[in-house]
Write a structure and sequence with these properties.
By secondary structure, the chain is an alpha+beta fold. Helix content is about 35%, strand content about 25%.
């Protein structure tokens, strides 16, 4: 495929989705009919002293069946931001891949990266573009979080199905287990949490969600499957390894057992 050329005044500029649309390769984020598709569930994010923690369970369900046990719902967007997804798994993963390409495309075209606020706005446009599919049940509800280098702090953004973007100042949860996970975090969250305390709180929220919500998967020591947990600070994205998570969930299990 040759490099597309555009007349003056009709250049899509640094918008990668607009470029795809102009060359006839726009994403097909629409569906028809009542499809039984895998759905991703519970994700949380919260601020701590040095940035943000993002966490998500690994289970995807199709109705009352477990369709995937190891789905990754917490994804790095770029060095200083990440996305978690809940809702229809297929459109959600397509949206995230397009979002990653948009951020990379913008940086190459403009010579600098988007601000964190700009990234949140770009994702809002993509969620809005999925509205026709959402009206048919293919809902995608992400959480966007990152470290704002200009402000020197972590920030959290949540969305509704129409693309509405809302900044959450402390913590946020989404998915079928959001009530249980969000309540746990709401009770224990404090300003200035350490990294260790914030990771433990995010894991505890997912634990309680999995205990009450059948669509949310808990830690699976038998298969070695643990939730995806990552921190984003001034030093960038860092995903926690399963060894650290195993220790954290063992501590939670011992505390629950002792009650």
């Amino acid at each position: 495929m040759s490099m597309p050329m555009f007349p003056v005044g009709d250049d899509p500029g640094s918008s990668f989705p607009e470029l795809l649309k102009r060359v006839g390769l726009g994403p097909a984020m629409q569906s028809s009919g009542d499809l039984s598709v895998p759905h991703a569930t519970t994700c949380v994010a919260l601020r701590f002293a040095d940035g943000v923690v993002m966490a998500g369970d690994r289970r995807a369900t199709s109705g009352n069946l477990i369709s995937h046990r190891g789905m990754e719902k917490v994804v790095q967007a770029d060095r200083h931001s990440g996305v978690t997804i809940a809702g229809a798994a297929g459109p959600a993963m397509e949206m995230i891949k397009l979002f990653q390409l948009q951020l990379e495309h913008y940086e190459k075209v403009e010579g600098s990266s988007l601000s964190l606020e700009g990234k949140a706005n770009q994702l809002s446009m993509m969620v809005r573009g999925n509205l026709p599919a959402a009206m048919q049940g293919m809902v995608v509800v992400p959480i966007f979080a990152g470290y704002d280098l200009r402000r020197g702090t972590g920030r959290l953004f949540t969305y509704d199905v129409t693309g509405g973007r809302y900044e959450e100042h402390d913590y946020v949860a989404t998915g079928s287990g959001m009530l249980h996970a969000g309540t746990v975090i709401k009770i224990a969250w404090r300003d200035g949490l350490s990294r260790e305390a914030a990771v433990a709180l995010a894991c505890r929220g997912l634990w309680e969600a999995a205990d009450a919500d059948s669509a949310t998967g808990g830690p699976d020591a038998l298969r070695g499957i643990y939730p995806v947990v990552a921190t984003i600070t001034a030093d960038g994205w860092q995903r926690l390894d399963d060894t650290e998570l195993a220790t954290t969930f063992t501590s939670i299990a011992e505390e629950v057992r002792s009650r």
